[in-house]
Amino acid sequence: MPDLLLELRSEEIPARMQRKAAGDLKKMLTDGLVEAGLTYEAAREYWTPRRLTLDIRGLTARSKDIREEIKGPSTTAPEQAVQGFLRKAGLSSVADAHVHSDPKKGDFYVAHISKPGRAAEEIIAQLVPGIIRNFPWPKSMRWGPASAKPGSLRWVRPLQSILCTFGPETEEPVVVDFEIDGIRSGNITYGHRFLAPGEITVRRFDDYVSKLEAAKVVLDADRRKEIILADARNLAFANGLDLVEDEGLLEEVSGLVEWPVVLMGEFEEAFLAIPAEVIRLTIRANQKCFVTRPQGEGEALSNRFILTSNIEARDGGKEIAHGNGKVVRARLSDALYFWTTDQGDLPDLGQLEASAEKFGLDLKKPLDQRMARLDHLGVTFHAKLGTQGERVERIRRLAEELAPTVGADPALAARAAVLAKADLTTEVVGEFPELQGAMGRKYALLQGEHPSVAAAIEEHYKPQGPSDYVPSDPVSVAVALADKLDTLVGFWAIDEKPTGSKDPYALRRAALGVVRILVEDRIQLRLSSIFASAGACYAGSGADQTRDLLAFFHDRLKVYLRDQGARHDLIDAVITPQSDDLLQIVRRVEALGSFLDTEDGKNLLAGTKRAANILAAEEKKKTAVAKTVEPALFKENAEKSLFAAVNQAEKQAGEAIQNEDFSAAMLALSALREPVDSFFEGVLVNDEDLAVRANRLALLTRIRAATGQVADFSKIAG
């Protein structure tokens, strides 16, 4: 079967867009081919900075002939219905339709549609120009004289050539001929812009790859990544260094070169006084280079970096490395200035005394000065939620309140909360916002803060996603919870909640962060009381917001537990609208899951569900159910045994739940298994005596109530 090769060659595509663009091209073309009636065996996309390529194997040479019948209205139907049928079937008049008869429905119109198949080349030539014109680039441009005309071609960068060949391995492939804005498809591509810019005539994918390789173009992005990583590791090792690996940077760099050449540059050792994170980000952000560290010397960096060139220079890359070194030195000079400036006094120190007094700050310390400035400048957090200074004050109060619950020193929690946002006004964080928190920790340690305070300044942002770590230091936990809970309560108070897929303030992430901290650090916290305490600062906060916010946390907890492998029905069985201790919910789910894995658990579930079903049916029929169980009405020993067992299990399970020993509560309920089984085997609930029936239904109600202390068994599958 024939294969299709398509290449769209342009000027340099931004690295961040390449992988998705290649995937979009594959999806758009393969979807179009299938919709047109073609099938294929395999498809794979490739990309370099200057080309998007698609290799489709085993594509059918022609779409199938289509014959179908479209059933229409009755021959006696109104004219409007008949005309609608003709439009749908593509017929010009009712004379072109056939009349079929049905013994029951009578005569009705039928259109016999016949569409001959089309050659794959014709379908491809029709599809590709439309895909190019409607390609979903995040940003695109027009170029050249044609750009002045309405409807001119747009592409991420000027499109230069289109290669499109089609044919089986055993024959000479043909060029699929089409044109878009003066660019005609062909069988010509070009090699590396500088090293081999000449024309290359291509037949099919295999010789396309080999000829590009000979022309200094590595087509496969993953192979370019492997080359860069292996060469970088080897070059670092040869110089007594280890490469500091960075997957994101590796992905980006592989999208900047078609022929990767790895080189080493260096800068003065004096710059190593700058924190390693700042050096790494400076070199990464500005020069797209990797940093290195001496072998076996921990986190300390070396003064050498690894760069990836797109050309093989005659001098072995000395000038390229030297030029990159000059730029790196200039950038590090800026970083060194930021680092030293942040440790000095602010020029407006005299204006910060009021803010310093408000927060108990020591203006002899640089980080305290930065917090005072944050408050003094009145930097807005949100138009409806006040300034950053006001927010810090709320977080401080909440962190102090939470501290005893999480085992933290309230004074340290308050100090950490006050300094948590101070680094937002530092020069380094202004240049590298992704270092907020990390720089605050460094500056805090430099001015002699308690290690837990310093750690909390960095860790109060954690966890920032499902794979991020959860803080464990009690002070960090107190401030992290206070920060996230203040944010959530505040946005709920002003009715700025996530809607659908929109969550501009990352409130789902904040709630998931609270869930993970409470569950993974095994912290018991009554969220309702914390919502009330945090909401006291907001006019719009109240009972309705508390209920809604609690439901939002329940949804996040369900997502978290399902990701951990918990059964959704067990979660639903345990959670009630009032459940505000997330750790207790988790413990209940764990204990319930373990219990239901036992034979007693499975049998009790079956018995309890049977009792619930009987009750539901009788309640629907408005059958009388006694308010209390009357032992004098018992006729069978099984009733007496069940009544005694329910009393005992209810009491023991209740005491165990009070002690939050949910495994013991399950053990108490397991004693019901045999009496419940015996009851349903030997007792007819719907006795002829209405008083006996009502009494037995009341006994079933007691079973439901006893098990309901732990979970709603009716929601459990099985």
UniProtKB/TrEMBL annotation:
Its cellular-component GO annotations read: cytosol
Q: Which InterPro entries match?
A: DALR_anticod-bd, Gly-tRNA-synth_bsu, Gly-tRNA-synth_heterodimer
Q: What is its EC number?
A: 6.1.1.14
Domain of life of the source: Bacteria
| Keywords recorded for this protein, A-Z | Aminoacyl-tRNA synthetase, ATP-binding, Cytoplasm, Ligase, Nucleotide-binding, Protein biosynthesis
- State the compartments where it is located: Cytoplasm
Q: What are the GO BP annotations of this UniProt entry?
A: arginyl-tRNA aminoacylation; glycyl-tRNA aminoacylation
Q: What is its main location?
A: cytoplasm
Q: Which PROSITE patterns match?
A: AA_TRNA_LIGASE_II_GLYAB
Q: What class of enzyme is it?
A: ligase
Q: Pfam families this protein is in?
A: DALR_1, tRNA_synt_2f
Q: Does the keyword Ribosomal protein feature in the UniProt annotation?
A: no
Question: Nucleotide-binding: present as a keyword of the record?
Answer: yes
Stated family: Belongs to the class-II aminoacyl-tRNA synthetase family.
Quaternary structure and interacting proteins, as annotated: Tetramer of two alpha and two beta subunits.
Q: Which NCBIfam families match?
A: glyS (TIGR00211)
| This protein's name | Glycine--tRNA ligase beta subunit
Q: Which species does this protein come from?
A: Rhizobium loti
